[in-house]
């Protein structure tokens, strides 16, 4: 291909891009007409992952020896099941747990950092197309209310560094 043919091809592409841009701007009624092209942000993309808590209804146990003026310190044990349906490996980076009373966020959140997760589980990878259960036994301090559910917020990271926040709530029976 000669230099002038290459230059002509570039001009043609630029002219096509300019024509499409002008055509898009010329429509004054753009909200009521269908869009031919749309772009999805990677942040808005749906992550093919499901979360669940086992057992489905949690029990709580008062901690012996710790005196509280209102509701006692409690502990629970459960498995957080992460099921990666898609084709990417994911890593659990952070878990935040909060007891709720049914009307608002209750006590202080309990944060489990990436370092804490690695110390507890070794690798935090959930390979693509697999399911992994992470067993937790959190201890919550004295409360001012009777908890009715546990709210769990997790952050997963894929192998390119994109973070994905997800939540799951489990009732306390």
Distinctive features:
173 residues; alpha+beta; Immunoglobulin-like; five-stranded antiparallel sheet; 2 helices; 11 strands; 18% helix; disordered N terminus
CATH architecture: Sandwich
Order of helices and strands: HEEEEEEHEEEEE
User: How many strands, which pairing sense, and closed or not: the largest β-sheet?
Assistant: 5 strands, antiparallel
Look at the helices and sheets and give the structural class.
alpha+beta
Low-pLDDT segments, ≥5 res: 1-44
DSSP helix count? 2
CATH C-level: Mainly Beta
Helix coverage percent: 10-25%
Residues in β-strands, percent: 25-35%
Overall geometric form: elongated
Count of distinct structural domains: 1
Rg, alpha carbons? 25 Å
Oligomer: single chain
Query: Which fold name corresponds to the CATH topology?
Result: Immunoglobulin-like
Distance between the termini: 75 Å
Count the beta strands.
11
Mean pLDDT: 77
Tell me about this structure:
With 173 residues, this protein is an alpha+beta fold. The chain has one domain (49-171): Immunoglobulin-like, CATH 2.60.40. Helices cover 18% and strands 35% of the residues. The chain has 2 helices and 11 strands; from the N terminus they run αββββββαβββββ. Residues 1-44 have low confidence and may be disordered.
Quick recap of the structure?
The chain has 173 residues and is of the alpha+beta class.
Layout: helices, strands, pairs:
Elements: H1 3-26, E1 49-54, E2 61-62, E3 74-75, E4 78-84, E5 90-100, E6 110-112, H2 114-121, E7 125-126, E8 131-136, E9 139-140, E10 149-158, E11 163-171
